[in-house]
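Thread: quick sanity check before group meeting

JM: Hey all, I'm pulling together slides for Thursday and realized we never actually wrote out the predicted structure for the chain we discussed last week. Dropping the sequence here so it's in one place. If anyone has concerns about the input, flag it before I start.
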Amino acid sequence: MNLSPEWVKAFAEHAELSAREAADLLNIPSAVLVAEIESGKILHRKVGKSYRIRFNDLMDYKARIDLAKL
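JM (edit): ok, ran it. Output follows.
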């Protein structure tokens, strides 16, 4: 399948991940991710008892922590 950059960008703008999916993507424990969410470092919304994180917000967080490591 050949996906256009525009399609990928549109998907990323609207995609939401669960806390588990986001933690897996960052390769960190879920408990660490939840602590970062609860401290306000990761933008999110709550659906019932679950967190939902927009893909772009997660990538912004990743960029910030990667930059801090330098």
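AS: nice. The beta strands are 16-18, 45-47, 50-54. The CA atoms of residues 46 and 53 lie 9 Å apart.
JM: adding both to the slides.
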